[in-house]
Specification:
Layout: H1 2-23, E1 25-35, E2 44-47, E3 62-67, E4 70-72, E5 75-79, E6 83-88, E7 94-98, E8 109-114, E9 119-123, E10 128-133, E11 141-147, E12 152-154, E13 160-167, E14 169-176, E15 183-189, E16 192-201
Length: about 200
């Protein structure tokens, strides 16, 4: 009887903890203003770190396709340790390579050239921007941003973004754009919606 009561008590405490955690999480809703850039679209925004927390990479792979002679999506943000599948959707061969990760040329890698329908995978364990290129089609370019937390978003055409279910606390919100200097600012998240304005400059 005591064992059943103990188990029931533990279950109630665990449920309360989950509910409490959910109640102390909020969304960051923001807008990026891009000064000197062609557009505020495709800017990566993410929580730079949460002290004392490490995040296991997702079991599900992310996808970066080559379609219509372009990388799709143009900017993909993933958590450190995520495996990304590169699939050629075009009826021509594509090569995928990156000359560096976070400007470190020692982390350059060439996935090789593959025909339509071929999928190749790579696990990204190094933080930072990964510029994607294709040797066959030099006009193609894309980016993978490897982030330290799972709290990230990419802006739409108007520069809007939403980062959901961020634990309550004070953090640094980082922004990355292929055309602008990296920027960061403090953000304090509570329950509900936290509104922020982000400025990036060329």
């Amino acid at each position: 009887m005591k064992t059943k009561q103990h188990i029931a008590g533990w279950a109630i405490a665990a449920a309360a903890l989950v509910i409490s955690s959910a109640a102390h999480a909020g969304d960051i809703k923001g807008k990026v203003t891009a000064q000197g850039l062609r557009s505020p679209e495709n800017i990566a925004v993410y929580i730079d770190a949460i002290p004392g927390k490490n995040f296991a990479p997702p079991a599900q792979h992310a996808a970066m396709d080559q379609a219509h002679l372009a990388f799709a999506p143009h900017v993909l943000v993933v958590l450190k340790g995520t495996t990304v599948d590169f699939t050629n959707e075009d009826p021509v061969g594509h090569n995928v390579y990156w000359p560096a990760i976070n400007k470190n040329r020692k982390l350059a890698h060439n996935m090789g050239t593959g025909p339509q329908g071929q999928k190749k995978s790579f696990t990204f364990n190094d933080l930072g921007a990964v510029p994607l290129l294709c040797n066959v089609h030099p006009e193609m370019s894309g980016y993978i941003i490897v982030a330290p937390t799972p709290y990230f978003a990419v802006t739409d055409k108007q520069g809007n973004f939403v980062i959901k279910n961020v634990p309550a606390g004070a953090y640094t919100l980082a922004a990355w754009s292929e055309e602008a200097k990296p920027s960061s600012q403090a953000v304090k998240v509570g329950a509900g919606v936290t509104a922020v304005s982000v400025m990036v400059k060329r």
